[in-house]
Amino acid sequence: MRDMATKNIKVSEVVYDTLENQKSGNETFDDVLRRILNLDPEIEDLAAYLPEELRKRSRELVDFINGLEDFEIEVERDANDGYDHVRFVSPNTGLTIARIRFGEGWVMTDYRGRRGDMREISSFAAGNSEDLGLNIEIEDGWEDIKEENRKKILGAYRKWGKEK
Fold this sequence. Notes:
Number of domains: 1
Number of strands: 5
Order of helices and strands: HHHHEEEEEH
Radius of gyration: 17 Å
Structural class: alpha+beta
Number of helices: 5
């Protein structure tokens, strides 16, 4: 759930029931309205500064991670670290299990580590990006990127994604 000021609004029972029927998983009414009104940015918007091949791979990575478990996807603009995120949240615990961070010219994936902190899995960038610790050439290492993400994220889900 987002930290924000709240307002109460009056709606008819028909509107309430319609919104209730639009909810999926642990969505709140705020989440439903944001989705219906297109208030959250699209994932493609987050990757706007990436070259075409990197945008394509980013979309594939989002779909790949989302297919690992029954995640809720949240898009967060300009998070506390200054980057845009796609977060993969466990509907059971509400915890972020994995995230993809988008910068200008690079993408980085993180998972929830053993101690509960977010830890880097992989990163890939356009051209030479010296500020990244791990830069895998996309064409040569795409299957490696996916496999490393799969292992780390499924482990994080086993530890942090199931109700105790």
